[in-house]
């Protein structure tokens, strides 16, 4: 595994931490959008954008939604935008499956909080990378994840493989993760690992912590297997291409 450095400890309360790294060539094979497509690349961590209390409220949204389904394996997802929900070895559309009953599960306040949090994260990313927030578009998939130590039952449960977001989802230019539970208190393992040529750099999740980065090969990453407990997070990603933009849930 080589050398491992901790970029952000669970016990840290980081106002802002940013590490600039050279951009990969991934962006060249996509249409470039002036004033948005990354020219400055890197990764940042902040505990100053979302409060722990807001993270707890958002985790409750995830818990309510995921209680309706859940994967047979260790990783379950809930996408409030498309309605995709893990159920057994498959996915169902939450909105079609539950119909009007969905109003008993999620409130208008839930969606308003989600929108507000998404906008604040978008503003912070734009500020750090020196672009206008209005040049960025929320893109899909944007989803809650719940991970535990249950063994994988399908390829969807194998969340720990190294990957590059821009390669996996061509639309991604900026990726963010909002953590909704605490490393070493709520779960063990499950750290986020940036895999650099010379070393691994890890982020220890903490409720309310936002980790964000440019989505190209400069940020190859993986998540460690969760050893015990339950890890909640929400992935919120942005595209520079208006054609890939989606509305808030």
From TrEMBL:
Keyword Repeat among record annotations: no
Name of the protein this chain belongs to: OGFD3 protein
Sorted UniProt keywords: Dioxygenase, Iron, Metal-binding, Oxidoreductase
Molecular function in Gene Ontology: dioxygenase activity; iron ion binding; L-ascorbic acid binding; oxidoreductase activity, acting on paired donors, with incorporation or reduction of molecular oxygen
Originating organism: Toxostoma redivivum
Cofactor field: L-ascorbate
Gene Ontology CC annotations of this record: membrane
Fe2OG dioxygenase domain mapped to chain residues: 140-242
Recorded superkingdom: Eukaryota
Gene name tied to this protein: Ogfod3
